[in-house]
Amino acid sequence: MSRDLSALVPRLREICSDRGVLTDEAERRTYESDGLDYHAVIPGVVVLPETTDQVVAVIRLCVEHNVPVVPRGSGTGLSAGALPNADGVLLVTSRMRRIREIDVDNQRAVVEPGVLNLDVTRAAAPHGLYYAPDPSSQQVCSVGGNVAENSGGAHCLKYGFTVHHVTGLEIVTPTGELVQLGGKSVESPGLDLIGTFVGSEGTLGVATAITVRLERTPERVRTLLAAFDSLDAGGTAVTSIISAGVLPSAIEMMDALSIEAAEQAVQCNYPPGAEAVLIVELDGPASDVDAQFDQVSTLCREAGAFEIHTAADAQERARIWKGRKSAFAAMGRISPAYIVQDGVVPRTALPEVLGRIAELSATTGIRVANVFHAGDGNLHPLVLFDNADPEAAERAGDVSAAILDLCIEHGGSITGEHGVGVDKVCHMPAMFTPDDLATMDDVRRAVDPHGIANPEKLLPTPRLCGERPSVRTGEHPLVAEGKAELF
Amino acid sequence: MSRDLSALVPRLREICSDRGVLTDEAERRTYESDGLDYHAVIPGVVVLPETTDQVVAVIRLCVEHNVPVVPRGSGTGLSAGALPNADGVLLVTSRMRRIREIDVDNQRAVVEPGVLNLDVTRAAAPHGLYYAPDPSSQQVCSVGGNVAENSGGAHCLKYGFTVHHVTGLEIVTPTGELVQLGGKSVESPGLDLIGTFVGSEGTLGVATAITVRLERTPERVRTLLAAFDSLDAGGTAVTSIISAGVLPSAIEMMDALSIEAAEQAVQCNYPPGAEAVLIVELDGPASDVDAQFDQVSTLCREAGAFEIHTAADAQERARIWKGRKSAFAAMGRISPAYIVQDGVVPRTALPEVLGRIAELSATTGIRVANVFHAGDGNLHPLVLFDNADPEAAERAGDVSAAILDLCIEHGGSITGEHGVGVDKVCHMPAMFTPDDLATMDDVRRAVDPHGIANPEKLLPTPRLCGERPSVRTGEHPLVAEGKAELF
């Protein structure tokens, strides 16, 4: 712990009590990284407030001492957005876990930031309601973290991202003011700062209460898995489903390499010989879902599906999803190390971009497995390499960066749902002009004039990034540190 | 024209040519107000740029001369958000009317700000697509104005507001920078300023291109009108429809006084003797709509509907909507003057708030007609008075203000879709704490450090509002000027 923080700790203990302040190195080390664990820094001090008042007091203290404060939820993020500062405060919201209200009539829940995503649905389910955003980590990730990252999930094609479900926020700004944004109403006058706060990755303060919209549990959910002998054929099926005016709740695609890994890891029994599988899920009123489900099956066959499995019950549905949901972790079965990339392209650019990724893979000898939310063009290429070979690790880093460039070239984005954090901060200038970035920075500095809220994340600085993205110049932390098992 | 602007005009003519700059008083007077015409100021000079470059040059010139600039679309707003400054520039976007692109495959349109709302749908319709936000003024209002006000419409219950349909913005900031926010992708990294820009009422700059999502034209649309012998019975029907999990595209309610006015104005042939009518519209796949339509009819009967009309074709559908859409203007038939109010309450608070409005009306002797988007709790009370009686005008202003207080008390908002502008700026402190407002103001000043973009709108200042809302202290412009025919 740095000298500066020694003065702070007794006052933090007054605010959060002894059990709410961790200074022991072994305890602090638990929090050295989030889900992107090749970025790691032991935090100066960890605080675990239990009330909004404590958050206000902690942040005011940080302002007073000019100490950086990094907010953290469950720590499942994949862009090192919760990477601590060695001389700063890590503010962990996991003890703020009260569901303040389930307002059945107005279909709203008011929850504290540490509440787990799935627990919102668990609390709402007895009333026939659920919370729609469903990141794969929904059993362990927190709603506060979802707000910070504007998390998506397999079903965001139909239901949108976290920002589309938050109607109100109680936040503590980086100057220590308690501010209410929005509420339960659909619309709020003045500047709508909810959209800006959601996805601001902890740079605009800490949400201490979140009001979310609850959806009616759909009358029917149906799931199918279709196998194709090429990615292109799968892509054609996606296009024809969307063009037919069907809006599935999810359309997920996996290529041969992802299928191979998933098969080895969880024996998901996808049709042998498939070069691509498509998982399509429909939900809504029974009559509607049944009619559209038949239509989707027909469109898949017309696009060349050689086998279609339809889930007869919840158990079969879970089996179909198992392969997809385990796909990232399964990569360990076919490669010693891998990078999970996250980029977006307009849906119509998918075939072109997938072709270019295949070319990149062929010319570099670096294998790339593809898992993606096909409906909204959100790619998750998994770049495989042997970490025993430093040269291969460097090439993998280059391929991973080149994929982001492809996304930008095709009018897309450097992140679909994993965020910028530390990991992609130096890619921001490839996507935005200096004026675009300056406008974001103006807003950030207006809310955080002292620059203490999650500094050096989200927006690039010359000190961090120089003139070119660091990945491109070989300074990528992965390459530099040669770290291996990423997930 | 003030002396300061004389120096500006030749340079404005260089930028926008002679036809793009209006200095003649008669021409300027055309722009003295928007739809809320009891606020009127003749603008110092009017410019009508045709390109983004011209907008950039005009705003940089305004910065250089420290001259306020007020953006205006079609001028149909109802909160005086486009009220000009006598010594400022009114920047009218109506000549920026190019539809830059209809991207059918990605379901996006890129339009300039002066494009009329309905023209987006007209351009998209041949491709089976349409633009969902539909303010009543959609034949004449502009997409740029919709962005400024975050406009809603009868169908925003199901489809959301303008902010839910904008995925990209090209804006010129109040410092004259051209900035791109978002794009065609569903998600954009960094601070998401789209949500803040949409609804910022011209205080954060001018949008010069807007990328909007297009929806598939629904396979079926069905509309019914149900008549009830009390507002409460109508309210019960709304609750039971929503509780049944049906999400109509629109649920509109009108009370006896509104029906009387509409009947006199457009002979809409609503069932005689109705104390309330409910218009319910469903859209979507045919099978789904047909099943739910029967369910809605049954629920209305169970709630006590004594007569139900169902539209057999587009013509009958139009006839049902005619009474609702003409309701505001129809008030002239039953009252010499009236104020259109716009407030929101959580849906479940509707019966209570309607009861309190009826009490207010009884105790003050001021009649109030109620027309509202019942599904999302957006009230449009029409406060009727005789403008020949100054004392009645004052009481009407008080009733109108008291209705907003009721909305706030019940956890709602002072505006649902008409915006704050000049008209409600002094109500903001009743809804937000000083810290809430200061946070908004920090963001505004960060983007507009010179304070030239639509000054004195949206956020209150002590100079404007003193310590209490001006309406409450009798300084309401309506009362002060005694103006009469408002709409």
UniProtKB/TrEMBL annotation, chains A, B:
The keyword Membrane does not apply. Its cofactor is FAD. SUPFAM superfamilies: FAD-binding/transporter-associated domain-like, FAD-linked oxidases, C-terminal domain. PROSITE patterns: FAD_PCMH. Residues 38-217 form the FAD-binding PCMH-type domain. Keywords: FAD, Flavoprotein, Oxidoreductase. InterPro entries: FAD-bd_oxidored_4_C, FAD-bd_PCMH, FAD-bd_PCMH-like_sf, FAD-bd_PCMH_sub1, FAD-bd_PCMH_sub2, FAD-linked_Oxase-like_C, FAD-linked_OxidoTrans_Type4, Oxid_FAD_bind_N. It comes from the Bacteria. This is FAD-linked oxidase C-terminal domain-containing protein. It comes from Lipingzhangella rawalii.
